[in-house]
Structures are given as structure tokens and as C-alpha cells.
Amino acid sequence: MTTLPRQRGLTEQAADAAIDTACRLLRLPSIRHEFNDIADRAVKDQMTYCGFLAELLMAECDDRARRRSERRIKAAGFPRGKSLRAFDFEANPNIDAATIHTLASCEWIKKSQPLCLIGDSGTGKSHMLIALDTEAAMKGYRVRYTLATKLVNELVEAADEKQLNKTIARYGRVDLLCIDELGYMELDRHGAELLFQVLTEREEKNSVAIASNESFGGWTKTFTDPRLCAAIVDRLTFNGTIIETGKDSYRLASTRARAEEPA
Description:
This protein is an alpha/beta fold. The chain contains 11 helices and 5 strands; from the N terminus they run αααααβαβααβαβαβα.
């Protein structure tokens, strides 16, 4: 058992050393790093003892919250960072900024509702998917991002290794499952059925957000069994939000605009 010597009238140097040791033992890295700056500010602003203590504790709490958010974002497995702030709503009027900012509150996740982003390549659907899911991770939700084909391949391998139930349960536990590029490739019946099992596991219990370049009418190219296709569409749209990002690539338009600018 480690104890710290207690005595009155510590020198400044001894006090600093005691604070550093205590913060290490109590695992308070933010207080250890910021103590001197906050102490100097406390003297300057003539804080009370309670005010000074509150500043120290809030610094630790804020830093812990930031680190938790960073861990959740990393665990989500996003392929790249995207934010709502970086999205140009004026470039794609099909995406309503008010609707997106309402979704950023994450009430739909709290209610276990789905979200579908449908549109052609370059219209911002993957940007929106990642940005909204990042907001969810920052607000404390457990998020997992995956490509549709990657998810199906993982499920097929799990089935072959008799680990399917375990894998489906793992995907069922996260608060928000994000499936990108749904509809880009045709899935065989077995793969489609496995994906359906994941969606059924999450139905009305946890949210699913998807991005697809195909309208729902074109999903029969991906899910070739019409009844299975209808069931999957039903799972992904019931009580959900559908955002159509359009057909005009604002990414391509931006590239052309830059190319046309005078040198």
C-alpha cells in the first residue's frame, strides 16, 4: 500500500512533487498537467478554494469526456474523418441543412429508428453518413461503420466457422450500425439472408443507417429475391428517415469549377 507523507508547511517544490505523485496514484492526468496553469489563473482571478477545486475537477472531467469520444470514434472504424461543419449545403440543395442538424441531435438513435441516404455518387451521402455517425459517437453512442460487402463477407466467414450467432450478436449490440455502399454489388441469396439476420436482430432495438446509390426500386439488383428485398427495405425504412441526395455530383461540379478558374 502506497501512502504519501502528510505534513504542514510544504515548500512550493515539495507541494508540486506531492501533487504530481497524488495525481499519478489517483490517475488524474489532466489535473497533473494543468494544475500550475489553473493555479496561476486562480490567483489572478482571486478564486475561492471551492472555485479553484471546481476548475481542477472540470478540467479532468472535460478531458476524460474528450478521450472517451476519441475512443468511440476510433472504435467505429470510419475510413476517414467527416464533419457536418465541412459539408457545403449550398452545393447540394437536395440535402436540407435543418433536417441534418435535427438528426445530429441523435433523437432518432435514442428511439432506435433507421436512416437511409439514397443518391448517386458524389452527392454527399457517405459524407453525411460518416458525419452524423461521428456526432453519435461524440454524444456517447456505440457506433460501428462497415461497407455492405465487407459485412456480408464477414458474416459468410462466420457462418463457415460456426461463429455466426456470435458475430450477429456483436453487430446487434452497438447503438448505431452504419452500412455504406449498399447496392453497389449484387449479393447472392445466402449473403442477403445473412444481412437480413443482422437487420432483424436490430429491428426496433437499435438504429441502422445506410447509404446507397440505388433507389429502393433498384434494390432487386442487389437482393435478387423479391420477397427478401421487400423485407429488407421494410426493416430499413419503418419509422425511419429517408434523405434523397439527388443525382448531380457536387464533387464533380466542384472539380470542374476549380478547373475553369483563371490561372
